[in-house]
Automatic annotation (TrEMBL):
<protein>
    <recommendedName>
        <fullName>Methyltransferase type 11 domain-containing protein</fullName>
    </recommendedName>
</protein>
<dbReference type="Pfam" id="PF08241">
    <property type="entry name" value="Methyltransf_11"/>
</dbReference>
<feature type="domain" description="Methyltransferase type 11">
    <location>
        <begin position="51"/>
        <end position="132"/>
    </location>
</feature>
<dbReference type="InterPro" id="IPR029063">
    <property type="entry name" value="SAM-dependent_MTases_sf"/>
</dbReference>
<dbReference type="InterPro" id="IPR013216">
    <property type="entry name" value="Methyltransf_11"/>
</dbReference>
Length: 266
């Protein structure tokens, strides 16, 4: 996995709503190429040079490494960013049309200018290459039993993300953004993430997911929401308690939808 671009001193203009607390990094580090980039795998070939933008802990990036000839993972030491966007001011022509595939996972939702980021991802992609992205739609997040704390969590999180310059329903806009960025040939799909006690591993993953969001509510986006006046500290406690109650309920479920797009640079 190369690091030539990631060695640059890069910063995002946006505030990363999730932050980089241990609860966030550990959850992101559990992602795999199979559960987060399955939609892209049929398009990969052994000769491909791939750029993973906003790679975070690199777990997805490492998964690509065994499937393509080379992988470059880029990120910022402080906040997950669209590196291609950050490089726009420099316009380093040596990076034009460098990669066969440019991929971003759950990144565009945090940017105030996702279109600009996609345009820069297009710039560093070779002619005939692919730009791919996967983004969640937070408004689709639903759980059972229906807990008021989880409903309030979703509402407060989405307000906070938008206050920070992002779009928590980015998965619903991927096709529009890609078209606006100049892509005319693309494939849009969706996938559903399900958390349920359907086996030992699934039960552990469900508890991990719930506990992670409980901690993040108290330590990362939650304090931001309080500072913005979107909720009280007491409400954060109620949201975290709801997540922990849900995580320990063996009959509880939680689902949400991701938008996925693969676009060809023609």
């Amino acid at each position: 996995m190369g690091a030539s671009i990631s060695d640059q001193s890069l910063r995002a203009m946006e505030r990363y709503t999730h932050g980089h607390a241990a609860s966030v990094v550990s959850q992101h580090g559990a992602r795999t190429v199979e559960d987060s980039a399955q939609f892209l795998l049929p398009f990969l070939r052994p000769h491909v040079k791939l750029l993973d933008v906003g790679c975070g802990p690199g777990s997805i990036t490492r998964g690509f490494a065994s499937r393509v000839s080379s992988v470059v993972g880029v990120d910022s030491s402080a906040e997950v960013i669209a590196t291609a966007k950050a490089k726009a001011a420099e316009r380093d022509s040596e990076e034009d049309e460098t990669f066969d595939v440019v991929f971003a996972h759950q990144l565009l939702q945090h940017l105030s200018e996702p279109l600009r980021a996609l345009q820069e991802m297009r710039r560093v992609c070779k002619a005939g290459g692919l730009v791919a992205a996967r983004e969640v739609a937070y408004s689709t997040m639903q759980g059972a039993p229906v807990l008021p704390g989880l409903h309030r969590w979703r509402e407060v999180y989405m307000m906070t993300a938008r206050r920070n310059g992002g779009e928590p329903d980015a998965g619903l806009y991927l096709k529009k953004w890609m078209n606006s960025a100049g892509f005319t040939s693309l494939r849009f799909t969706t996938s559903t993430v399900t958390h349920s006690d359907s086996g030992t591993d699934a039960a552990a993953a469900k508890r991990f997911f719930g506990e992670s969001w409980a901690t993040r509510t108290l330590e990362t986006f939650g304090p931001q929401a309080v500072a913005f006046g979107f909720c009280s500290a007491g409400e954060l406690d109620e949201m975290a308690a709801a997540w922990r109650s849900w995580a320990q309920d063996s009959s509880a479920t939680f689902v949400y939808v991701n938008g996925e797009v693969v676009a060809e640079k023609t």
